[in-house]
Design a protein that fits this description.
Two copies of one chain form a homodimer. Chain A has twelve helices and twelve strands. In chain A, helix 5 packs across helix 12 and helix 10 packs across helix 11. Chain B binds a DNA duplex (30 and 30 nucleotides) through helix 2 and helix 4.
DNA sequence: CCTCAAAATGAAATCGTTTACATCCATATG
DNA sequence: CATATGGATGTAAACGATTTCATTTTGAGG
């Protein structure tokens, strides 16, 4: 495994010159450049990132914090981040926290130990105090879920408005008894989406029914099923469900089917995210499309700018209501 | 951002001693250990992985090559790998190749440039010649999909037997007209699963009908739909489908539903992998369960052993037929 | 109190780059 | 021909840890 010294020796030049060739600096005469390139080829030389990274005090690795790799919502975002990262010679380290502070801390350590140059946090359950503290010394961006007070730059959508439009759609096709399948209120997006739900109801003179709001602990399929069971047991059963995640909605779909009811004739369902699976279900799912890929590219660009020491502004992206078979 | 020198100075010892404390060597007297630990705390010192990695000629990063992050089959494997990796102080770099040689090469470069200590390849479309060449100098393990000639250690299941049992199950519940929805024959697992299919038919005296075998280019949902369309158009329509991936099977399910036929009464469907989503469909999917998490942990252990210079043997894990509503 | 082995510590080399600064050389100019 | 100029190249010092080997300190045993 040759190193730069050996290349220099073989080419009859100094390591500085080899380094210059390696980094495409134009102060090298073409004569010596060729000599060096030949030596590189001869020796099968590959520059070591270890040496380079130490010298440059960078790892060229970006950390991505997600609660669960199983939630397809994040996958498309990750693809976006990856595209930007690769194009700028960064690599991404995917970190599944399981919303577990201990695991989270393992990953935070990576940036403390210079193993990573920055973090994109998408975990709603992230310890915001630690994150804030970290953000003073390191580059951090919040993606999708964010905390305003933290002062950490974020990219997201307008959750309140998106939710409002989803519920308004249900009202417009004739529903009055609309349930909200929400996640834990400790999350900002959950509160924002609930506000949109309330605004839509108010605006159309529909009184708020507390029984129609169900909170789930996680955004998984099973939690959607369980929540739906509760909703189906309500005396004055809702005729429409707005779930704050497609996975919840798909769980609801499954449970409604199992109970012998029909979607959308008996119960209409609207999801949120537009994950791939939402078009694979039977019936396909009406949902709010988040621009996930775009969100990823923006987050990636923001983080890299931040690492470079540039100033970055918060970004709010557009969403879209996608009408399909479930309404 | 303190370094080891400053800690040494503050503690009034040499860097060697600090390093010894850092690495928990027991040749340090408790008196000086305490001094050093206090200095570390005072200065908020965090050892830099960049320096350590260069000195140790390692990156403590494992590369995972997958064709597509969207295929949930890989997610569970990745979780297995991650568990082992973290427990041994490694981190994993997830690399989506899109079966694109160019992108693949970017990632291969990471190991050539010492940015990664080894590779777990799960991409059936990997360029096996490059992989073989790389395996001479670096630590590589094949997971799930493998190439025997390459001499690169692998962990997988007995695809032929699994496929045989799936088809046998269909035969036992009365089916004779069984279609095989296979992926491209250039993949070893595709050939192995086709052999299992043939053996099951032969053994029960069912003649092979070439029209009942459909090849798809990729393992995605849409490809399952398209393949199913072709199958439904066959004159003497099959009464059962064995798809070599759950995603294909779910696509088939969707298409069968759309055509007004009923699963399993009109057409039975068996999938392969037991991805999470296979229990969320309507009806739920009978499938071959691969021990994905286990496969991940084994692959992780094999790779780390290999990196340590130990000898590793190939591993074949058990599979299981999971009966659900679609048959 | 001396001796000596064992334990504790330190000095310095090393890993493989990049880069500031110094130096060399060729060429143009007077 | 001497000299200034600028381009091409080299020297050596970082970056931040680990580790070998040498040296010092410690403490037990006589």
């Amino acid at each position: 495994m040759a190193n730069i010294q050996q290349v220099a020796k073989q080419a009859g030049v100094s390591v500085a010159t080899v380094s210059r060739v390696l980094n495409g600096q134009n102060t090298v005469s073409s004569k010596t450049r060729i000599k060096v390139e030949e030596a590189i080829k001869n020796l099968n030389y590959e520059p070591s990132m270890l040496g380079r990274n130490l010298r440059n005090s960078e790892s060229r690795i970006l950390l991505i914090l997600i609660p669960s790799i199983s939630n397809p919502f994040y996958l498309e975002i990750i693809k976006g981040i990856e595209q930007v990262a690769l194009s700028q010679n960064y690599n991404i380290l995917l970190c599944e926290t399981d919303s577990n502070p201990e695991k989270e801390n393992i990953y935070f350590d990576l940036v403390r130990k210079k193993m990573a140059d920055g973090i994109i946090s998408m975990d709603p359950a992230v310890n915001i105090d630690t994150l804030k503290e970290l953000a003073e010394k390191y580059s951090i961006i919040q993606c999708s879920e964010y905390n305003l007070d933290s002062g950490i730059p974020y990219v997201s959508i307008d959750n309140e408005e998106a939710s409002y439009r989803a519920v308004k759609h249900l009202i417009q096709i004739g529903h009055k008894k609309i349930a909200l399948m929400n996640s834990d209120e400790k999350f900002l997006y959950a509160r924002q989406r609930e506000m949109g739900y309330q605004r839509a109801l108010e605006e159309h003179g529909i009184p708020l029914n507390e029984d129609y709001i169900i909170y789930t602990k996680h955004l998984g399929f099973e939690h959607g099923q369980q929540a739906m069971k509760k909703i189906l047991a309500i005396q004055d059963r809702p005729t429409a469900i707005f779930a704050v995640s497609d996975l919840l909605a798909i769980g609801a779909l499954k449970e409604i089917n199992a109970s012998g009811l029909h979607v959308p004739n008996d119960v209409a369902v609207v999801g949120f995210d537009k994950i791939d699976f939402s078009s694979m279900t039977n019936p396909t799912l009406t949902t709010i499309a988040q621009p996930m890929f775009k969100m990823g590219t923006v987050a990636g660009e923001m983080l890299i700018d931040k690492i470079r020491g540039e100033h970055v502004d918060n970004v709010i992206l557009n969403h879209e209501l996608v009408l399909r078979e479930s309404t």
